[in-house]
Specification:
globular; about 40% helix; about 325 residues; 4-stranded antiparallel sheet; binds S-adenosylmethionine; Rossmann fold; alpha/beta; 10 helices; 7-stranded mixed sheet
């Protein structure tokens, strides 16, 4: 469509140039303009006018499409979701063994696991392979789209998880036996109060005996990343460049540019701006205890080494006491 529009512009420019007069700006009716109207007549004038209408329509259509896609899709639009899936699987791979061990009692009783911020399903796949029943959720339609394809291809027959669009902190959470969240999805919320609301919602969604395992970026995350140089990486069909900044001690900002190969061999670019609110994770146990859940803040889920400033929040709601 955009190319069609360009063709119309070129055509219009060519017609105008062909009939241009050196006197065109004189204010006098230009001789060549007179020739143009008399020899080519009203049909051509009308066709040029309608070309401009079509051009404007194309431009408006492109603008609406572009603004709509960018504003409605929010973070982790399709291209970054693909790059995340292809280039950033190492975090889920590192956390999975420790999380599976924490969730072993839940699997033993065939409990239901809720995953928050599941992204493209990298941890989800491990949970399913271990025999868990999972509801995998994320706020990004782009991430869930990649997850749907990935898990559809890799999950054993009949064991595909339920995938749901769910945005913290206000979307209701189902009652479950375990909640997991890695890749610090809670730090994407706009402020510390929203993160507290999400932690309370998580506590309240846990059934008696339920288990929680999530990672959360502490204030130390930002302190450890002052003046971090740009990051770049490239794969066969993708590339990423990230610029970092820490405008406040509790704010970590990434400006992320991705390039993805189109089927015709050309490349397209997208840009996303991510802000992560950092919190004092030592306050989390008291907050969740107030809602009946005991957690500890640890340096890892299992034997993996988490990035500096990323904490594992692990705990449970005590089982109901029989009357
Ligand atoms: C760094 S990615 C981690 C994805 C995945 N857990 C992994 O480890 O590969 C953070 C995820 O949090 C999700 N997220 C951001 N804001 C969210 C919100 N308000 N509610 C739920 N998920 C959110 C993003 O869409 C993204 O999928």
């Amino acid at each position: 469509m955009a190319l069609g529009g360009l063709g119309v512009v070129r055509g219009v420019v060519r017609v105008i140039k062909k009939n241009e007069s050196p006197h065109a700006t004189s204010g006098e009716p230009s001789p060549s303009r007179a020739v143009w109207t008399t020899t080519l007549g009203r049909p051509v004038a009308n066709s040029i006018r309608s070309s401009w209408v079509i051009l404007r329509f194309h431009h408006l259509f492109w603008l609406c499409q572009h603004v709509w896609v960018n504003s409605s899709d929010g973070l982790y639009r399709h291209d970054l979701a693909v790059v995340h899936h292809k280039g950033f699987g190492f975090h889920a791979a590192a956390c999975a063994p420790g999380i599976l061990e924490i969730l072993a009692p839940v699997r033993a009783r065939q409990g239901l696991v809720l995953e928050l911020g599941c992204g493209t399903g990298l941890l989800t796949k491990e949970l399913i392979a271990a025999g868990h029943q999972v509801i995998a959720t994320d706020a990004s339609a782009g991430m869930l789209e990649v997850a749907r394809d990935f898990l559809g291809e890799t999950a054993p027959a009949g064991r595909a998880p339920e995938l749901r669009l769910l945005a913290l902190p206000d979307d209701p959470l189902p009652q479950v036996d375990a909640i997991v969240a890695i890749g610090h999805p809670l730090n994407y919320l706009p402020d510390a109060a929203s993160i507290d609301r999400a932690l309370v919602a998580i506590a309240e969604a846990l059934r008696p005996g339920g288990v929680v395992a999530l990672d959360l970026a502490d204030l130390e995350w930002g302190a450890a990343r002052q003046n971090t140089p740009n990051y770049s990486d490239i794969g066969a069909e993708w590339a990423i460049i990230t610029r970092f900044s820490t405008p406040r001690p509790d704010l970590f900002v990434r400006d992320i540019t991705t390039f993805l190969a189109n089927p015709d061999g050309s490349w397209r670019r997208d840009d996303e701006h991510h802000e992560n609110v950092l919190v004092d994770t030592s306050q989390v146990p008291a907050l969740m205890r107030g809602h009946g859940v005991e957690v500890e803040v640890r340096s890892s889920f299992g034997t993996e080494t988490l990035p500096r400033g990323l904490r594992a929040v692990v705990g449970h709601r005590p089982p109901a006491v029989p009357p």
